[in-house]
Amino acid sequence: MDIESHTIIHAHLPTLLSSPSQLTYEIGGSKQCLANHGVNASILGYPLNLGSDKPSIVNVVAKYYDLA
């Protein structure tokens, strides 16, 4: 059993491509929020399975997670 990250507000990540800081907040902030509660999340579940086909999103995810 594991706990995976899923962004802060379940945002549709492709809609955040024009706002890199918001994209980073959603992806990295989710990991940090879980860490604040003692959970080391190494996996991200893409909300609605959207974004894994966008290199700029995948690059941000790769900074924080081992698997997505």
Give a brief rundown of this model:
The chain has two helices and no strands. The two termini are 16 Å apart.
Description:
This protein is mainly α. It has one domain. The protein is built from two helices and no strands. α1 packs parallel to α2. It is globular and about 30 Å long.
List the helices and strands and how they pair.
Layout: H1 20-36, H2 55-64
Helix pairs in contact: 1-2
Summary tags:
mainly alpha; 0% strand; globular
Fraction of residues in H or I helices: 25-40%
Kindly state the number of beta strands: 0
Portion of residues in beta strands equals under 5%
The gyration radius over C-alpha positions equals: 11 Å
Q: How many H/I helical runs?
A: 2
